[in-house]
Hints:
By secondary structure, this protein is mainly α. Helix content is 61%, strand content 5%.
Amino acid sequence: MSADTPGRSLGGRFAEATHPVLERINRSVEVDKRLWAQDLRGSAAHARMLAKVGLITADERDALLEGLRAVHEELEQGTFVFLPSDEDIHMAVERRLGERIGEPARKLHTGRSRNDQVLTDVLLWLRDELPGLRGDLVAYVEALVTRAEEGVGTPMPSFTHLQPAQVSSVGQWLCAHAAEVAGHLRRLDHLLERLDACPLGSGASAGGYLPLDRAHTAEALGFARPSLNATQTTGSRIELLDVLGLLTLVGVSLSRLGEELVVFCSPSFGFVALPDRLTTGSSLLPHKRNPDGAELLRSGGKLAAAELAGLASVTAGLVSGYSKDLQGDKALLFAAWDRTRDLLALATVHVDALTWRADRLRAACGPELAALWLADRLVLAGLPFREAHHLVGLAAREGDGDLAEGFRAALAAHATPVPEAQAIAAELAAQTPEGLLAALKTEGSAGPESVRGQIAVLKGIVGR
């Protein structure tokens, strides 16, 4: 059967056409055609290397390069016609190249396999696209930091177990999100440094017999070096798992912001408000303004974890070397990638647009949020912390929301005298949410000076 037989583009070994069901499932061009620019770039570098080592002539190299430029133009302008027989972007390009330049196109695949070609394309794509993701992360951090500056002195409760814990500030809350994403920026920068080994020339599994100059190809494509081991290179997707891990961490962070916005803008809290453009209505209830954008952040932010688990499940337990199981890697990567970038844009818009209700935030800072301040003040007066903790816990119970009243009752019931008891009671009665904020001492706390220091660090990380 001819190699040109429909359904069998690589058909010299086979006596019959591929079954239509297998052909349909095996076809990946609708997913991987977005790698066309990287595929053409890799092919051009490969052609130059083949000429350098004498496996093709200079004329053949020039014909290949000119043909690749012409195919590039067709793909760029949208005039390239994909055929049902195009299994993937690599075969589509090779087929069209042959139509344009004839015999030299048959030499382009010398010394490479689609196994090393596809991973080269994906790594080139990631190296091209990671700076864009970095820009999205930076824009999100900048939005958080800008709003944090506005809220440095605005008290709000912080939570543990979703129960009020201490007086914090809007600035501290937003800096918490920014600090987490700043960590993702560092992870991205390290990831970009690690995607520096070029797979091209690894072949199908164990290398090839031709005198390829892999270092030349790697340098031409901007990699630091060729990949170390051909079998590991072609049969592993560890780089993609690394990227999906980063996208998962970003998604977790965005999901947490989404949950807080959903909770904080509910009437029960009323801490923040979102503009109409970021809410939707109900098909039945005329009065509703639903925080659908925040809910999509909450749900969508979790989905990259599913793609990560999917690729990890596919790759785990495979025998060394390439297996067709790996074909689904790009669909998982692209789905997580596109969604994450959309969600980052959505999160940035939410941060820019949200309005906080300073009155509701301050009112939620009840007297009981002075409990740790009171315990620490007793420590400074000379009580052991566990004794102070017990005494303040008793005050919280006795006061039933009025910590100052409860403290007076606890002092009356306490077996031993408490140093500075009356002075501490007077300080507690006069305490305010703003005073509790100002009293915070530790680095990284919600104290105004600490938050301003956090903002300065975060601005340095994003280059502001």
